[in-house]
Design a protein that fits this description.
The chain is an alpha/beta fold. It has two domains: 158 residues, Alpha/beta knot (3-Layer(aba) Sandwich), CATH 3.40.1280; 50 residues, Trp Operon Repressor, Chain A, CATH 1.10.1270.20. Helix content is 29%, strand content 18%. The strands form three sheets. A five-stranded parallel β-sheet has the order 2-1-6-5-7. The chain has a two-stranded antiparallel sheet with strand order 3-4. Strands 8-9 form a two-stranded antiparallel sheet. Strand 1, helix 1 and strand 2 form a beta-alpha-beta unit. The chain is elongated and about 70 Å long. The two termini are 34 Å apart. It binds adenine. Adenine binds next to strand 5.
Length: 233
């Protein structure tokens, strides 16, 4: 999979060199390229924003530098890319959405700041036959300073679903929210030692009785989901 990320803060994406995503890159499963939007600005101040038509607070990112940046990426891409725009006004990003992203050959993230990106950018790339489509996603009902943190979230959620990225092929299957598990949170987990600061690991988990253990885990997951996320039951 190839992922390009365009931002006015390319250093914000440095964590993509670490951990799971960094390892996927090292293993050749993933090609990540980060671009500075200001390299495509046309004036001497390297401006990328301007005041909104119709008035109102804040600034809007101009279509021109975005068009130049995205066309440059398309020019050296093999497959038609999907344009992903993180925005609090987007469709909800969730586990099924992450699975869909993970199935695509090439993703391009356009990280907006300020009041967002001129709406003609999304409209233009949605109509382009050499782009696969445009996806506008929100990672939750809160407003971030820009799309970078949201792009990091979406990239990590998608990359861990690429075959070969997780060490144990099974480990994505019983995650909270996965299709197989149903819409339930995972219950509590424990490891050694069996007693820590007077707190003991539930006896059933030490019993070796796989049937009882599975039933116990299912019940704890059900309880937790009811308590914390009744909307998922
Ligand atoms: N940009 C700002 N807030 C955001 C959010 N909640 N999700 C995605 N992108 C954003």
């Amino acid at each position: 999979m190839r992922i390009d990320i365009v931002s006015i803060f390319p250093q914000y994406l440095a964590p993509l060199e670490l951990s799971l995503v960094g390892k996927a890159r090292d293993a050749g499963l993933l090609d990540v390229r980060v671009h500075d939007l200001r390299d495509h600005a046309t004036d001497k101040h390297r401006s990328v924003d301007d005041t909104p038509y119709g008035g109102g607070p804040g600034m809007v990112m101009m279509a021109e530098p975005w068009g130049a940046a995205l066309d440059a990426i398309r020019a050296d891409a093999k497959a038609d890319p999907w344009l992903v725009i993180p925005t609090p006004s987007g469709y909800r990003f969730d586990q099924p959405t992450a699975t869909t992203l993970a199935s695509h050959e090439h993703l391009v993230f356009a990280c907006g700041r300020y009041e967002g990106i001129d709406a003609r950018v999304a409209e233009h790339y949605a109509a382009r036959s050499d782009w696969a489509g445009v996806l506008e996603y929100s990672i939750g009902d809160y407003v971030l300073g820009g799309g970078e943190a949201a792009a990091l979230v979406m990239v990590e959620a998608a990359v861990r679903l690429i075959p070969g990225v997780l060490g144990n092929a099974e480990s994505a299957a019983d995650d909270s929210f996965s299709k197989e598990a149903g819409p339930a949170l995972e219950g509590p987990v424990f490891t050694k030692p069996p007693k820590w600061r007077e707190l003991e690991v539930p006896e059933v988990l030490l019993s070796g009785d796989h049937g009882r253990i599975a039933a116990w885990r299912k019940e704890r997951a059900r309880e937790r989901t009811q308590q914390r996320r009744p909307d998922l039951t």
